Amino acid sequence: MAFNFPFFSSSSPPSFPIFFFFLRFAPPLFSALRQLDSSGSLFSSSSFHSAPPLSSALRQLDSFSTEAFASTQFFSLRFSYGKGNYEVKHSISLDQKSIMCVSTIPVICYYNGQMLRTKTDVTYEGRKAAIAPMDIPIECTFEDLINMIYARTSIDKRRFKLVLNCKYPLRSGNRFQPFLIWDDSSVHRMLNLVNTTTIEEIELFIEVVRVKAQLNQSVGGHVDLFVHDNYNVPQSNYGCGPSSSVVPDIGPNGDEEDCGNEEGNDEYDEDVDDECSEDADIEVDEHASSFRTFNQFLENEQGIYVSAQAPSCDVSNHPNDETLDESSPVNYHLPPTPQFQHVENLDNAVASCWTPWVQHSTSYSSGEFVIGQVFNSKVDLQEAAKTYSIKAHQEFVVVASSKKLLVLRCKKMAECHCPWKLRAMLVKDTSLFVINKYTGPHTCVNPCLNRDHHQLDSNLIATHIKALIKAQFTLTMAAIQASVMEKWGYQISYKKALDGKHKAIRQLFGDFSQSYTELPRLFLAIEQSNPGCVVIWKTCEVNMPNTEIFQRVFWSFKPSIEGFEHCRPVMSIDGTHLYGKYKGKLLIAMGCDGNNQLFPLAFAITEGENTDSWGWFLACIRNRVTKRTGICVISDRHPGIMAAMTDPHLGWAAPSAYHRICMRHFASNFMTRFKDKLLKKLVCRAALASTERKFNKHMNTIGRINSEALQWLEAIPFQLWALSHDGGRRYGLMTTNLSEVFNSVLKGARSLPVTALVQLTFFRLNSYFVARRELGANRLASAEQFTPYVDAQIQSRVVKAGSMEIVLYDHVKGLFHVKSRRGRTHRLNLLETNCTCGKTLIYGFPCSHLIAACQHHCVDFRLFVEGYYTTQSYYNTWASLFRPIFNEDEWPIYDGPTIGPPDSMQRMGSGRPRSTRLHNEMDVREGITSITCGLCKQVGHNRRSCKNRNQF
Questions:
Q1: Rounded distance, CA 896 to CA 443, Å?
Q2: Count of beta carbons in the 10 Å neighbourhood of residue 279
Q3: Residue 557 and residue 549: Cα distance in Å, rounded?
Q4: Which of 23, 50, 136, 725 has the greatest number of C-beta atoms within 10 Å?
Q5: Which segments within 308-361 are labelled E, that is strand?
Q6: pTM (2 d.p.)
C-alpha cells in the first residue's frame, strides 16, 4: 500500500504527517529524518553523499541497512527496520515535493502439497510441494492476497479454489497450530505476527481444492449440488444484509431501562449457566401453510414431469432398455432434478427483509456485528450469530435468553480470556431485536480442527435446506450433508441432517399430528372446486366428545373416475409404506390407457395391509368408482388381496372381475422357495409364453430338473400367472409396474404429512391430464387413428408380414396358413380373429400373421384393433378437467368431529425410520452373465457380432 504526503516549502513551518506513520514502527527513523530535514540537506541539490547530517543520522540508525541514489531531480532511500522493508522517495517539481513510503512483509507460500498437523507443530509435505517467497504489503486485503497467490503460483483460478492456513504460534511453549485465513481481519492478524512475535518470515500453507460443476450421484439418490467461488462472497453478511440496519434513536423511554432488571449488571453473565441446548429459543413457523407451499411449487409444474410430444412408453413385460427415454414409465414421471443454482440465495442468513421504518442501509466491511444493528426477530438474530460463529470457526454459549433479551459470550472466555460478547434486546412494541452491546472480534484460537460445530444445529440446517426441500422433497441425507459441507465446511452427522430435514418439512408442510385434523377441510376444498370426487372415511370413536381417531381414508378424483371408462379393463393394485412420524400404508389402484401409460385411479391411507383393509379398499372402488365388469386385477399374492378377490360380497369374483398374479412377484416367491436361478428363468419363460405349446415345453423342462418345483407350480392355477392361459384378460401386462412406477413418483411424498401427500396426488394427476390431453388433441387434429404405442407396434409387424408366405384354405371362413421367414407355420381364422400364435388375443391388436393375411386378401387390418387403442378413446381418457383449489381462506368450514392421529401408528424411536419392507431376492440385483459366442467360443460378443464368423 502506498501513501503520499506533501511537504511544505523551506519557508513554511515543517510539517511531517508521514512521521506519525513511521513513529508507529521506527522511533529512531523519526528523529533521524527530522535532523535530515532541519539541516536542509534533504532538499539540497548538492550531492546526497556529502550531507554530514545524513551521515550522523545514519549512524544513529544502527539497525538499518541503506542504499542511496542522488541526482539533481530525484533520489531514493531504501532501508529495513525489524521485519519490514521501507522506501523513501523524493522528487522535486515546480511547486510540490512529496514523499512516499511502502511497507511489505516476507511470506513463504507452500503449495502443491498437504498440511500435516501434530500436537506441537504444523508442517507441509508432498512429493510435488513447492514454495513461493512473496513480499506482501502490510495493508493487503484478503482478495488481493488471493489474486497475488494465483498470479505467483500459476494456479488456474477457474478450476481450483484456495484454502489458506498460516503457521500460528501459541502463547504457551514453543507450539504452533494452523490459523485459517478467510477475511481481511485474519490477513491483517497474520501479517502483524512479524511485529508481535519473534517470527521473521510468515509460513502460509495453501490447500488447492478442485471446483466441480456438480457432485455426481455416487451415494444412493444423491442429487446434484452446484458450488460457487467463495472468495467473492461479501464480508458484510452480519451488518448489511436486507435485515440489518442502523436503528434510529430509541429515545429516552427506550427499552434499555426496561430490560435492565432482566440482565442486571455484567456480573450476572458470569453466574448464569452457560450450557445451551441445540434447540434453545429457536422458534418454528407455525403459520406455514402446506397448501400454499404446494400451490406455489406443484401447481407450476405443468408439463415438467410429462411431455406432451413424447412417444408412448412400454409398461408391459418386454421393456426395451435401448429405447427408454424421457417417455419411459420410470423416467417419464420422476420429479426433475433440482437445479440449486436457481434456488433463491441462502447465503444471507441475517433476516428476510428490510426494517420497514428504516430507509437506509449501512455496510460493515469488517464482517462483525455493530452496536445499533437491528434484526426482524430474535430467531433472525440467533441465525445471524450462528452463521457468524460458524464462518469464524468459533463457538458461543447463551448467557441469558428471554422474550426480550439475548446475551451471548465466547465459549472459551474462561480459558483464553476472549472478550467476544453480544447483548441484544427487544425494541418496545415491536418484534425487532437491536444490539446494544457488542465486543468483538474473537481473540481465541482453537486448539484443533473440529469436524462439526456446536452452532451448526438442526434449526440452522432446516433454514438452509428449506428451499432445497421445496424444490425436491426426495432430498437424501447424503445430499444434505454435502450441501452443508459445501456451504460451511463442516461434516454433520446423519442424525443431525435427518433432524434438520424433519424440521424443514414441518416448517414447509405443517405438523404431522395437525395434518390429520386439517385433512377433512382439505378434502372439502377439493370437493368444492371439483364436484364428483369421492372421499370415504373410516374412524374410531373415543371417550373424548366430538373427537374421533383416524383409521382409513379413501379418495378418487372425478376426472379419474370418468377417464377410466375409456381405458382397457385392467387394474393394478399395490401398497407402499409411509415414512413420516406416523406409520401406515398407501394403497394405490392404477389403470392403463390406450398408449400403454399408467392411469391413476384411486388412493387410500390405511393402518396397514390386511384382509380387512384390502377388502374395504376394493369395496370402495366397486361401489363408488367403477361398475365395469370383466376387469382384470393384477397384484401380488398378499393374503388380504387373495381373500378379497374371492369374496362374492365385494363384487370382484369371476365373472365380475378376474384376478391375475404379478409375474415378478410370482417368480420371486418361487426363487425364495427353491433358490435356483435356472429354474426361475424357466418359470419366467413359461409365464411369458404366448402359446400352450411353448408353455408345456418349459414346464416339462422344469419337471425334468426338479419334480417338486413342477408340483409347486401345478398347484397354482395356470390362468393366474401364465399368459398362454390368460384368455386375453391381461392385455399383455404381466407385472404390477403400473403401481410400482407411481409408487416411485410418490417416494419423497411418503415422508410428508398426510395433507401434503393428498395435495401431491391432486397436482401430479393434474399434470398428467394436462400433458396427455394435449397429446390426444394434437393427434386428433392430425387425423391419427391410433395411439403412438399401437402405431409403432403395427408398423413393426407390417414389416414382418411382408416376408411371410400365405396359403388360403377357405375363402368363406377366412382360413389361412401362414409361414414365417424362419419356417414356422401358424393357422389363422380371420372371421374369429384367432391365430395360433395367440398374440392377437393377448394384446388386442393384430399380429403379423393376421396382417399378412389381410394384405393378401385385401382386408383392412385396422378393423381388428380394439377401440381402446384409438386416438379418440385416448383423448376421452384424459379429457376431463381438474379445477384449481380455492385459496385457503375460501375453504368451506368443517363442522364434523375433530380427527386425531392414531397413537398406535406413531413411530416410537427417534432418528431414521426402520425399514418395514419385507426384503426378498428381488431387492438383490443378480449378476449379469457374460455373453459367449457360439462360433468362436470367446467371451464378450455373440454370433452376429463375431469378427471371425466368415471362417466358420
A1: 62
A2: 12
A3: 24
A4: 136
A5: none
A6: 0.59
